[in-house]
Amino acid sequence: MTLTNPHNLRIDIDGLMARLMQLGQDGALEGGGVCRLALSDADKAGRDRVTGWMRALGLEVSIDHIGNMIGVRAGQENLAPVMIGSHIDTVATGGLYDGNLGVLAGLEIIAALNAAGVQTRRPIAVAAFTNEEGARFAPDMMGSAVDRGSLEIGAALAAADADGLTVGEELARIGYRGPAEPGHITPHCFFELHVEQGPVLEEAGFEIGAVTGVQGISWMEYVIEGVSNHAGTTPMRLRRDAGHAAAVIAVEARQIAAKLGGDQVATVGVCALDPGLVNVIARRARITVDLRNTDEALLRRAEAMMAEVVRETAAREQVTITGRRLARFEPVAFDPGMIGLVHDIAAADGRKVMRMPSGAGHDAQMFAPHCPTGMVFVPSKGGISHNIREHTDPEQLQAGADVLMQAVLAKAEETEARS
Amino acid sequence: MTLTNPHNLRIDIDGLMARLMQLGQDGALEGGGVCRLALSDADKAGRDRVTGWMRALGLEVSIDHIGNMIGVRAGQENLAPVMIGSHIDTVATGGLYDGNLGVLAGLEIIAALNAAGVQTRRPIAVAAFTNEEGARFAPDMMGSAVDRGSLEIGAALAAADADGLTVGEELARIGYRGPAEPGHITPHCFFELHVEQGPVLEEAGFEIGAVTGVQGISWMEYVIEGVSNHAGTTPMRLRRDAGHAAAVIAVEARQIAAKLGGDQVATVGVCALDPGLVNVIARRARITVDLRNTDEALLRRAEAMMAEVVRETAAREQVTITGRRLARFEPVAFDPGMIGLVHDIAAADGRKVMRMPSGAGHDAQMFAPHCPTGMVFVPSKGGISHNIREHTDPEQLQAGADVLMQAVLAKAEETEARS
Lengths: 419, 419
Prior knowledge:
The structure is a homodimer. Chain A is an alpha+beta fold. Chain A has helices at 13-23, 41-56, 100-116, 142-147, 153-158, 167-174, 200-204, 242-260, 296-317, 336-348, 364-367, 394-412, and strands at 60-63, 69-73, 82-87, 124-129, 189-195, 208-214, 216-225, 229-230, 265-267, 271-274, 280-281, 284-293, 320-329, 332-333, 353-358, 373-378. Chain A has two domains: 6-214 and 331-412, Zn peptidases (Aminopeptidase, 3-Layer(aba) Sandwich), CATH 3.40.630; 216-329, Alpha-Beta Plaits (2-Layer Sandwich), CATH 3.30.70. In chain A, helix 3 links the parallel strand 3 and strand 4 (124-129). Chains A and B meet through strand 7, strand 8, helix 8, strand 9 and strand 10 of A and strand 7, strand 8, helix 8, strand 9 and strand 10 of B.
């Protein structure tokens, strides 16, 4: 029984804003922003609030062994649900939107369907996954990784924070070590609405990003060992300057990104010199190189170019350079049908929409290998995220949530998987 | 009355080594080396030892208001003395030779003259100046600067260490705030024997450096302000990366030294990124640039080139760079007559000797504007100094001390200043 044409449905932006602001009270920081680290007291408060909302909206709520919270709205038929998911944990100085938007927009979609009396063929599930940020416990995307079986539950429960407290202990302490089996719901498809966390949409003047996938990530740490000496008495030709080698590698990293072009990015975010004195040639330097590309072959090319730079620099500067891989993820490609669906719905709704990759990791990437998966991006003001100044205008949030709702409704009428 | 031909005199290397080792017990570190920071308890012990040796050698000892210790051996005539001086304070992880050699070789020369019954026309003074290193109190070369009037005594006494203790308080505490007026002795000429603290003599296979002067020093700190952003989501063209700008400046500093050639050196010893995370573009970087040259005009040229690099980098990378001058000393030229004297005595003694500048600052430079001044360098193994592994072979120490003694004896016979 459909009382309203679902294609005219809009989410209630006032309702969404109210939920965002109320959830923002759990772990609120002086001066704005939120600290809601995974499994903290603030996280418990946010979880209680979100599960309360789920139940108030009539959803069937399950909590699994890793604390993932999934609320399901029944469909007309007993089919695999369309899942909307993200997370409500934050970094230590987080904003109101990262993660929260994806969960609360899901709830607001349920509210809109309830209010309009819309029945969908398939169930709709709204999921909040544990510890997406990885700010307190490693690895990040923990809950969605356990849900999809790419992280073993025992390893996840044993992960400890800096104080030695484990995920399992902290889940039990806050009452969210639930009875459900992780992955007990196999979704028909998966959607995530998220703030971009970058400047691309704003800079290009677009409202919606139809996310094509997640960049592959290659993190290396290089420890450079040279010889410490007096900055005045050591001729240039006799130096083995670890600091200089670090600077050369950092400049070359930028060159590699320029040579490869496209989506390739390269960042040297850590550079520490020892002893770090104005008049002493550094004996030791530690730098990190973060390389990302949406194309695995190009990412490997960047890694090979970087390795060659490191070899050449070590030989020329007569220093020893030891590399250590800190992280490596292959790029994730989202389902072309899902990308097209998001794009076409946004365009039909009169939104300026662009296909774009995600530079950051998201829960959605854990679902991509298992079911048709797509993401909707809305702009981040100034590209700022993981920061209390994170901001997206309400109209932009509405646009994203409306596109998400229409995409969900379209998929919820499918009788079998197609993409 | 001369009992021995002074030209055949040699210092007693066993005596010099014994003094070096004994003084090395005051503030000795586990595993070798010394921590004898200025005006510490260890410095007091070293001072007591050195003034005890001065008195045992028959010297007239004076302690001035800044704690400089000067022992004078009378001459046949009441003329201005030939002064030998250096320091006995060390850095926190210092070696046995830096500074100490210059003072203790002076004492060993006195011992040799005493043993041989040599009377000189002019008095010979051996001075140990307070806080040459500047490792605890700024500025460095404090005692010699006060002695020669380039630093006001009140300012020196008020200088405080990291704990807020002042030079004046600490001098009084250890009993070395003496009654003599700083500068009460105006020397005929000044000599300092010192370890090179660099690799040049060893690398070239020379035994003695006839020091031509001290490099001019220009220290700048640059604080680079960019915009912190996500390393994955921020396209290269939209970055304002303070860390990248720092790396560019560090690489360009090396280029400036290469372009100017000669004695020009350039060092970036400090590079700190904020927030310093692998996946975050740095919002802020702090680096230092240490430029040195023996030629003031070339040093200014290097500074101008550096300033241009900073301007260009700020514009290209869209960052703000604020420079702050940390130190600036013009090059010091030693007296040509003194340089020639050291060179010729070493050559006549069969030593491989080269004229060379000092890359480090020394007490001698405070005397250069006021009286004929010269320095003798002996090799530093591996160019290592300010390090517990600082080492010079006993034969090399003997060679340097013998050259110093012959130069002192030559000057001590002069009836009036000439150079």
